[in-house]
Amino acid sequence: MWKTTLKKKLNNEDVALSGDHSRADIGKKKKKRFEFNEALDEHWIKLIQEVRYRAFTHSSSFVGNVKYDQDEQSMEVILNGKTYDFCNVSERLFDAFEGADSKGAFFNREIKTLHDC
């Protein structure tokens, strides 16, 4: 197999093309990376720094949205469309509730009467 070298004029620049799989990268500009330059105001910076609430949504016939306040160690749960508050709930218990296969069974067994405010 023999190689051929060709010279071609492209956009007033000499481009050398050689071999079977040649490529010409002349005249291509590098893409500029996207940079996010918008500044956050103080209100948003405080909210980002203060991770206070955690929440999850569960759409079953019994358990709905669940919101956990890390500072107060309290939890707000929507049960059958009505909101209930629960106190002295550890973050570990909230994590277990979020990961439970049956949210209703876990709620009845671990939270219902033990953490009622």
Set down the secondary structure blueprint:
Blueprint: E1 5-10, E2 13-18, H1 42-49, E3 53-57, E4 63-69, E5 74-79, E6 82-86, H2 91-99, H3 103-111
Antiparallel strand pairs: 1-2, 3-4, 4-5, 5-6
Offer a quick outline of the entry.
The chain has helices at 42-49, 91-99, 103-111; strands spanning 5-10, 13-18, 53-57, 63-69, 74-79, 82-86. The chain has 117 residues and is α+β, with helices and mostly antiparallel strands. The protein has a domain at 52-111.
Write up this protein.
- This protein is α+β, with helices and mostly antiparallel strands.
- It has a domain at 52-111.
- It contains three helices and six strands, in the order E-E-H-E-E-E-E-H-H.
- It has helices at 42-49, 91-99, 103-111; strands at residues 5-10, 13-18, 53-57, 63-69, 74-79, 82-86.
- The strands form two sheets. A four-stranded antiparallel beta sheet has the order 3-4-5-6, covered by helices on one side.
- A hairpin with a 2-residue loop joins strand 1 (5-10) and strand 2.
- The longest helix has 9 residues, at 91-99.
- The N and C termini lie far apart (85 Å).
- The relative contact order is 0.11.
- The model is unreliable at 1-10 (pLDDT under 50).
